Amino acid sequence: MVRLFSFFGLLVLSSCLLAAELDDVAKILERQTAPTGVVFEMVGGDAKSLNLALRRTEAYVNNLRKKFPKAKYVIVSHGIEQFSLLQQNESDNPELHKRVERLVKDESIPIHVCATFAEMSDVDPNGFIKSVQVANSGPAQIQEYTEQGYILIEMEIH
Known about the structure:
Elements: H1 2-30, E1 37-42, H2 47-67, E2 72-77, H3 94-105, E3 111-114, H4 115-120, E4 133-135, H5 138-147, E5 150-154
Parallel strand pairs: 1-2, 1-5, 2-3, 3-4
Helix pairs in contact: 1-2, 2-3
């Protein structure tokens, strides 16, 4: 019985967090003027949850671009999930790597990963796939974007 309540609690929490994403996108769409850009923050989770979050991000960007085609869109990943973007993990996560490649090249959405977290985790920051940009610090990269006028959307990625 306790496991059932824990499961439902997790579903409610996930629904609330996903609702926050949707609410953030809706608030941007309500604006009369375009934002400079939108930065999507991803932290936590694994390759599967990163892939799902990127899929949702792609849908959000498609909707936002309809109203604000000149706004810029970026993604910053700075948790455990970023390690699924290492070159050595490409064969384990082919769908994720194809999605990242498409977002960067076809959709012109830069994706940043965090060198500081990589180094703290004994991972060589030079080991990431070539399509991502390695930032010194993910949180500092996000702050840089928000200081330029980008709106932050924290993605649910657990």
